[in-house]
Design brief:
- With 136 residues, the protein is an alpha+beta fold.
- It has two domains: 13-50; 54-132, ACT-like. Chain A, domain 2 (Alpha-Beta Plaits), CATH 3.30.70.
- The chain has four helices and four strands.
- The chain has helices spanning 13-25, 31-50, 69-79, 107-118, and strands at residues 54-63, 84-91, 96-105, 123-132.
- The protein has a four-stranded antiparallel beta sheet.
- The protein is elongated, with a radius of gyration of 19 Å.
- The protein binds nickel (II) ion.
Length: 136
């Protein structure tokens, strides 16, 4: 990391003690790293709320024995081909599959795609993880 800047922050002693306790539990090596992560998270959440381009992954589990489920999942992903970058499929067990759809685009489109996937019978869990497309 180059261009490091030191700056002073004034805040309540009790809040800092709680924060230090919290980041110790999360195994952060330094307070600086924890604060930098918080800042990035805030910026990414803002970008999400503001509808700016984000990158992320839609992760879900389904039972591939369900009738037509694989065809439906492929159809939906093709409908959103402008935001789908890649798909990884993992055979979790004899019945269950895990799929990770990597996406880049507007948050509203990512949410619509996730909603469409979630609405398919047989999809058991569908979550979105997102980050920024810019270096933070
Ligand atoms: Ni599978």
């Amino acid at each position: 990391m180059s261009n490091l800047v030191r700056f002073g922050v004034s805040l309540e002693k009790e809040l800092l003690a709680r924060f230090d306790h919290h980041i110790k539990g999360k195994k952060y090596p330094t307070r600086s790293k924890a604060i930098a992560d918080l800042m990035r998270r805030e910026i990414i959440q803002y970008r999400w709320r503001a509808g700016k381009q984000v990158a992320g992954a839609i992760v879900f589990i389904y039972n591939h024995h369900r009738r037509n489920i694989v065809d439906r999942l492929i159809d939906i992903q093709h409908d959103f081909s402008e935001i789908v970058i890649s798909t990884q499929h993992v055979h979790l067990s004899h019945d269950e599959c895990l799929e990770i759809v990597v996406v880049k685009g507007k948050p509203s489109n990512v949410e619509t795609l996730a909603d469409r996937i979630r609405s398919i019978k047989g999809v058991e869990h569908c979550a979105i993880a997102f980050t920024s497309t810019d270096k933070l």
